[in-house]
């Protein structure tokens, strides 16, 4: 339970923060895909720790090695196994915490479930695991490119600093701006405010939350499933499975609850033979199935639990103790979480694309 | 795809709005459960149409009949099949819509996926299907009662009208107030405002959205799974699979993105031998696994798509047409959605409870 | 667990021998299939009890009613639910057995697993459940007909009486002969011997086993999966899931263990542009994936456990008791099991056909 | 599809014969299991190539390295990833075969399915993959030891040479004899005949089939599931998923089809408070669920497809060609398949044990 994502295109993930390596097995990749290894490494670099002054100082090369399922640079249909070695694990930083439950971490809940756990760096609960998702998602994006489907995510808020990005910009332009700054925000002025704020938070040893906006363009109508496996429900689960995520909304989201039906309904019209909608409060999904419009959603990330101030807590013996963390930490995860959101979205869309074959006889 | 929910405790659902019946098969119910049939019917009555002036006028008895898996009033471990007959389907109301795509309904996306569909009353995409979930969820709640786990949902907002319920009230008190008014809101004054508002909306032939709050008390620490099948991710998918849902947040949710780690972290303390947290921004789940605190979340429902004013749309031939709906409709779904939210929460928790057996050797 | 078969094309089955009805939900049927209801009823008639002097005397009409997923005679892609009412259940015949474990039945093992069970007529463990498979399998055969895939099964042995059918006969001819006699054997002389033998066994209140041969023609190369979900492994599981089955072999089977590689290997040759094999000891499957040749296998059925002589056994209290069965019984199941074998084979092949879409990019 | 086995205790397998490594991820292992690494290596040594004069000459150390899910020698509940490096791959032996379809191998069926494949040493279709199963199965056997469940397999025939082992011998004694000879046969005289026969076959460059018998002792009553996921159906699928397997039978098997019910029924009796059966034609499983008696079955292996004589075949261009194999090969797989059969049986039994928790309320 819990280590596999997907039905046809599947990622099974393994590895702990301070073990020798992490990695995963990708199943269901169509054969004959020419793998763009640079693109995968680029996505890993977007996620990797130590990439800028607004991230943790842990240095990991995050170099991925493929050991099966690819022959002469092309997928064969066999499971693709990949390995990412851990280089900069400093387990000694965690020796004090072996028996102490860090507040708002998974230490206690894992202890309650498993009894036995690798506490070093959060072990299995560490967000280091998300590097595996980026690899599988990056290959998924390469499959989607064959279908002209594009996935784009960026930071829409850090704490109270919110961006109102320019709706006249294309995906390409938004991507260019976002990726040109270290918070991945598609507005340079706001980006600079975010960076300053995160720097000050970091110097306080504190952390802050934020939000990521994601849009999926080019998805055909008909993706998804009715009733339980609705496309947005699978996207929601995918996003809520990312470390530190507290909420998910698509289309009109929570604001939509305040609207009237007469305001919210998306009228259809015929645009040169294509059925389109005038507005898109539906977020590109109706009844759980895509309608051909842009699919978009927002993801909420809490402030990182690791902070450097003293905190009251309890140890495994039940003693009240004071904890002072020493491990390196991210002051705000959203800049590094952008490629993770894209990866999880890509996993969902590819899977529904491969499942969507029950055509009319 | 899409008609089954759960891993051990599973519901497979079938039926269309205007077919002879709907129903489902429940698998994985432990044997020896004495079924409280009245409790199930009570939950169905809370969901059924025509129950009050703020719901649709469609009258359905929604009487459930069990035809397998129960012997002498007790579950046997065999699959439990149940049937709910459709009595008040008025298919003629929909004859005009056979080839017209209603805005913000699933008509077009189903058409794009399947080509062939039963358009009457929305067919498979109708929220009538959720009656099946209420049956399976009501039995799930009976299993949870054996483990002293209680699930309580109520309406927390309708449009812009928001309730700030009294935190000193017990679940029992909140339930008593909510269930005593037809909008299922735990504050009588606010409830009356909501009722008046919905009535005015209904008389306009319009609709409005709302939010539901749900809390799960008594769940032990250790439920859930790491990485992909996090407890809150499964709760999120469950909620997002309900018709008209646009968003899900748990614990601090979207507001939490604005907080600092030093404000957000839930410090542990030892309460008479039990590990507890001082605050509960985590929402009872850490690293995807329950920590023994109250699990709580909020669900956003959009305004119902069926409204009685004229709307521009397109038909199957691609012609731009004007649609004037005649079918009966709910002006606001949240009062009837309360037992559905409870049911889906119960399905998730029972399933994780039955899965959570990999005890330490 | 245990009530669902398949991944894309799925049957979820419910019902007990003496409950009001049995039935099931079929998911994954492509939309737009014109359902041939007569063909389904014909297959049910081939399986139904009381069809001839060599079967049980229980009389069931086995009329199937479809209540969802079909609109204007065509599948819609929504789950297809069907109902088969039980008419001739004589539960009183079983009242003596309420607390007695019948030898070689599932009474004790179900009791050990569930504690609580519906003992009447074997309850859930009754082969009556296989009528559900015939319905789902019959629709599956209609899908396969679109792909020119034909499935044919017949009785190849009853006790020691074995048929050596004429290899020069076409499937059509073999089917015509098999279905013209009440044991479903493709050799009339042998069929008569089998009939006489079963009649004598029946008059003794005893039972006998037998074997069924099944062949799948027209399956394209490429169906199946490597490693665990090999096509023949899924066929094997499907057959071993049928009541009373004790063994499965495909291609050269157990006899093949005695052969040398130089005798057993199937040499390839080019037949007018099609790759073919000279012999077919592989049984049409190599490395778990079909190679385009005929897929064939054999299934072993034990003698029915219900016999009318006195037997020593134990009751729920642990007392040694003598049991004298009164229920009606089949002296030999293989004539009625022919459509069940075909149905399970069809479920496997349709499922692999619908899964087999991961084409080369 | 096809690379994962199991529901709770799951193995996901990857790797090709001539890639850098093979391996897998084990999920669902209960936490706190002290891993006996020597026992795992011992099982790998029983399967590894080059172990004796009756096996292939390929030399592989088959040393397994665990890189996650184990901390201080104990399982943590996190996925266990393991790696087995390929050392003695001689890909040049296969360069002639890059475009030639070897008879009775998976070359053509893989080509038909995937288009692109790693042909070296059979790539993904190579039985080298079964080393992964041995690792997962060996850990499964360690879990089963906690429940006093013992799995024992041995060679019961090679070609026409069949062993009639002494029924008075204990599992321990049978294991001691089987493992003391290189064909793993529990009768020394027969073992010697088998060895001589295989040696002569090997010197001819030919191959021969054989059978393996497996028995599972100590399994409690109640394991398994009704209808589709019967215990013996899952065992059957597990065995049929092993390379070169053509048949599976349990209990009375194919011979049982010739018996009368009055001979075949296993009468129950009370043995000091335990319900037992006098005979065991049921093979320890009734209605798909274990009854507490010994579970036993037989598995048929065809002769290995790689032989050294010239064979007619076809290449990817459709030309008729003559193939003369040069790769090293096993003259008979059954001696090395014994630990594979045990491993697959262990995977099935552990999985059903972990699933079997839906106790009576």
What can you see in these coordinates?
Four copies of one chain form a homotetramer. A five-stranded antiparallel beta sheet of chain A has the order 1-2-3-7-4, covered by helices on one side. Chain A has a single domain, classed as Chorismate synthase AroC (Chorismate synthase, AroC fold). The radius of gyration of chain A is 21 Å and the shape is globular. In chain A, strand 8 (150-158) and strand 9 (161-162) form a beta hairpin. Chain A has 361 residues and is of the alpha+beta class. Chain A has helices at residues 37-47, 107-114, 130-146, 171-180, 188-203, 231-240, 261-264, 334-355; strands spanning 4-5, 10-15, 21-27, 64-66, 70-71, 74-75, 80-85, 150-158, 161-162, 210-217, 245-250, 268-271, 274-277, 285-286, 289-290, 295-301, 310-314, 320-324. In chain A, helix 6 packs antiparallel against helix 8 (334-355). The longest helix of chain A is centred in the C-terminal third of the chain and has 22 residues, at 334-355. In chain A, 27% of the residues lie in helices and 23% in strands.
């Amino acid at each position: 339970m819990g280590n596999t994502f997907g039905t046809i295109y599947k990622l099974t993930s393994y590895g702990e923060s301070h073990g020798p390596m992490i990695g995963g097995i990708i199943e269901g990749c169509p054969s004959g895909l020419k793998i763009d290894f640079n693109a995968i490494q680029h996505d890993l670099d977007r996620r990797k720790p130590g990439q800028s002054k607004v991230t943790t100082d842990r240095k990991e090369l995050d170099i991925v090695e493929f050991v099966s399922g690819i022959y002469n640079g092309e997928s064969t249909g066999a499971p693709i196994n990949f390995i990412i070695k851990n280089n900069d694990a400093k387990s000694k930083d965690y020796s004090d915490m072996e028996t102490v439950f860090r507040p708002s971490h998974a230490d206690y809940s894992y202890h309650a479930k498993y009894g036995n756990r690798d506490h070093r760096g959060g072990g299995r609960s560490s967000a280091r695991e998300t590097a595996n998702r980026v690899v599988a998602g990056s290959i998924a994006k390469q499959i989607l490119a064959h279908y002209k489907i594009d996935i784009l995510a960026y930071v829409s808020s850090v704490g109270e600093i919110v961006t109102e990005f320019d709706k006249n910009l294309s995906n390409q332009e938004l991507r260019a701006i976002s990726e040109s700054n270290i918070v991945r925000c598609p507005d340079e002025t706001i980006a600079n405010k975010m960076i300053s704020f995160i720097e000050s938070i970091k110097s306080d040893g504190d952390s802050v939350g934020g939000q990521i906006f994601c849009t999926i363009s080019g998805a055909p109508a008909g993706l998804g499933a009715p009733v339980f496996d609705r496309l947005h429900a699978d996207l929601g689960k995918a996003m809520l499975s990312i470390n530190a995520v507290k909420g998910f909304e698509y289309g009109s989201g929570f604001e939509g609850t305040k609207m009237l039906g007469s305001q919210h309904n998306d009228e259809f019209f015929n645009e040169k033979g294509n059925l389109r909608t005038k507005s898109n409060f539906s977020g590109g999904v109706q009844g759980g199935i895509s309608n051909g419009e842009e699919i978009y959603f927002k993801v909420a990330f809490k402030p990182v639990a690791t902070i450097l101030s003293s905190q009251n807590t309890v140890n495994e013996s039940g003693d009240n103790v004071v904890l002072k963390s020493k491990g390196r930490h991210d002051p705000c995860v959203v800049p590094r979480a952008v490629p993770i959101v894209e990866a999880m979205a890509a996993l969902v869309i590819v899977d529904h694309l491969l499942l969507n074959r029950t055509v009319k006889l």
